[in-house]
Write a structure and sequence with these properties.
Structural class: alpha+beta
Radius of gyration: 35 Å
Shape: flat
Helix content: 25-40%
Order of helices and strands: HEEHEEEEEHEHEEHHHEHEHHH
Number of domains: 3
Length: about 350
């Protein structure tokens, strides 16, 4: 290579040179990066030819454990232990979706570096990309296994009472890891190799409680007792009764979510009813014509009340105004005497 360049050609360039390509004659999906106005040369810091990003981002890559991913997901700018981990060397890297620290399938250089503990090399493949079971799908899914979680916390709101020092214990059941349904195979895979990730996520969920427990003496602890892949939530009534008998509060996430949804609907309905009453009051006091033509109140009146209710309110307003006009005026004798 040219003076000042100690790098060798990358793997892509070597393969294309063997086929007779040059810096000026090469496939459309590769290019030679050169400063503006400079002559194209394979003697460059990138090791020669490089992939066009629009092309390589669409290609399918495969991890050592068989997961597929798109090129856009990969990292291609790392140099470590004499290796350029790039698309062009077929050694791009990704962040392992399982975050498995002790995976023996990864390159040995990546296994020995603490900062790269979740990095994994990928290789381009001619396989047709399938989103189901891909790295993209696994990363998009936050978590979805049924877990049984036990929480122990000191009641800090009972100080100065007969119940001071009481410790509450509760078990949360049926908490899902994924935001929406996924295949059971992915669930089983997560249960098998994502235990550390699940624990880390729960630890971050209770970071505040754990901080006060460690540094301020507030008793708090949690334990993930069971993680499993299931098609639907199942309940063990006898176990629940036994836990309740032992003074443990049982919380089923599905019941809690149902109550929260009902409370949200009730709150929304209450807010809507208040808005309707406010709108009817405006119509009774000022009339429908008082509403600006394109105002939100006018649109809401048309949508929520309808023409029949609006006509009824208009009639009531006219009757009130008529009663007000016909109401006798009381004379003040003192005022008459003063005149």
């Amino acid at each position: 290579m040219g003076a000042g360049y100690d790098k060798k050609y990358n793997l892509l360039t070597k393969r294309l040179l063997e086929k007779g390509y040059t810096a000026d004659h090469h496939p459309d999906f590769v290019k030679v990066n050169a400063p503006f106005g400079a002559e194209k040369s394979l003697d460059n810091y990138e090791g020669g030819l490089v992939f066009e990003r629009w092309w390589v981002f669409k290609q399918t890559f495969r991890t050592p454990c068989g997961l597929q991913c798109k090129g856009m997901r990969c990292h291609s700018h790392m140099s470590y232990r004499g290796i350029d981990w790039t698309y062009e060397n077929d050694m791009a890297a990704i962040h392992c979706p399982y975050e498995k620290r002790d995976c023996s399938l990864r390159h040995r250089y990546l296994q020995e570096h603490s900062v790269l503990k979740f990095a994994c090399e990928v290789h381009m493949t001619a396989e047709e990309y399938c989103y189901e079971g891909s790295v993209e799908q696994i990363l998009k899914l936050h978590d979805d296994e049924i877990r049984r979680k036990k929480i122990r916390r000191l009641r800090c709101d009972l100080e100065g009472t007969l119940f001071e020092g009481q410790v509450d214990r509760e078990i949360i059941k049926g908490q899902k890891l994924f935001a929406h349904p996924v295949s059971l195979d992915i669930c089983r895979a997560c249960v098998k190799i994502c235990q550390d990730r699940i624990r880390d996520k729960e630890r971050s969920r209770y970071s505040r409680e754990l901080f006060f427990s460690k540094y301020h003496g507030r008793d708090f602890a949690f334990e993930i007792q069971n993680v499993r892949a299931k098609r639907r939530e199942s309940r063990d009534l006898m176990q629940d009764l036994a836990d309740i008998r032992d003074g443990i509060k049982i919380v089923h996430v599905s019941d809690r979510e149902k109550r929260q949804a009902e409370a949200k609907r009730a709150k929304r309905q209450k807010s809507h009813e208040a808005a309707v009453r406010r709108l009817e009051k405006i119509l009774l006091e000022k009339g429908y014509d008082h509403l600006a033509e394109y105002s939100a109140d006018r649109r809401h009146a048309d949508k929520w009340l309808g023409q029949a209710r609006i006509a009824e309110l208009e009639e009531l307003r006219r009757e009130r105004e008529k009663e007000k006009r016909e109401q006798p005026v009381q004379m003040n004798l003192f005022d008459m005497g003063m005149k």
